[in-house]
Amino acid sequence: MTAVTGAALAAALAVGCGSSGGPDGAGSAAGSTAGGPAASGTGSAVSASAAAATRDGDNGVAQLPADEVLQRAAQALKDAGAVRTVGTVSSQGARIDLDLRLDTSGHCTGTLGQSGVGSFQVVKAGPDLWVKPDEEFWLSHGGEALSQLVGDRYLKTTSDNPDFAEIGELCDLGALADQLGTGRTGLAKGDPTTVQGRPALTLTADSDSDSGTGTGPGTLYVATTGSPVPLKLAKSTGAVEFSDFGTPVPSATPGPEQSLDLDQLESPGPSASVV
């Protein structure tokens, strides 16, 4: 079961923050998935939160060296405590759509998906992790029997499960912020622009620490008003936008009648136990 569920989910759909996933993508943002429409793109209409942030005035980062701007952006992301990430990234040569809300306390909810493979919902609360593949995923990886066995339920495991390590990392805002602030070389500031209705400056890196995917240099868009949060990270392989800073992650988790314990499902026995 692990080979079908864990390895397949992680390899086919999960996106590691430290690899090509998370903040290292570029291109158009993903469509509607976790709790609403995708984050708006560059030059889009100003949301209420963005409009409020622009009234806070110039934050001074445009006058700072590029390396310091990057550090301030990473710290601002961590200080926000919670964020929504929406976009398309690359993992092991596959393009992955994601829409996740995550925080620094280990909570996360949203969806990951790949065209032609399927998608799954993710819920994380501390070390507890639930994943719910859709029918398309089960038919391409588990077959009809497994799809019927699980039905419309989540599979419950923990972030300590090595087969789901990438999802656990992706759902860690602190780790994402740390990754964002390290490993970039040859940073250069570019022309001012607008992202999600907020004034922003661009930081372009010659390279980064991502040696396993060959995604190459990317551009980070940092807000120049209000908190200097990152608004978008773009590469040739995809893009991720950041929004809803400080908005609490939904705290609801699947109940016992909504989930199956993955460990018990993997263990030999006459039937799977309901969590």
Structure description:
It is a single chain. This protein is of the alpha+beta class and 275 residues long. Helices cover 24% and strands 29% of the residues. It contains 8 helices and 13 strands. It has helices at 3-12, 48-54, 66-80, 135-141, 143-150, 165-170, 173-180, 262-266, and strands spanning 82-91, 94-103, 107-114, 118-125, 128-133, 154-158, 188-189, 193-195, 198-204, 219-223, 230-235, 238-243, 259-261. Strands 1, 2, 3, 4, 5, 6, 7, 8, 9, 10, 11, 12 and 13 form a 13-stranded mixed sheet that branches. Strand 1 and strand 2 form a beta hairpin. Helix 3 runs antiparallel to helix 7 (173-180) and helix 4 crosses helix 5. It is elongated and about 60 Å long.
Discrete helix count: 8
What is the distance, rounded to the nearest whole angstrom, between the alpha carbons of the first and last residues?
17 Å
As a percent range, the share of helical residues equals 10-25%
Radius of gyration: 19 Å
**Major beta-sheet overview:** 13 strands, mixed
Helix-strand topology string: HHHEEEEEHHEHHEEEEEEEH
Low-pLDDT stretches: 1-54, 209-215, 268-275
What is the global morphology?
elongated
Give the rounded overall mean pLDDT: 75
Structural class: alpha+beta
Q: What percentage of amino acids are in beta strands? A: 25-35%
By DSSP, the count of extended strands is 13
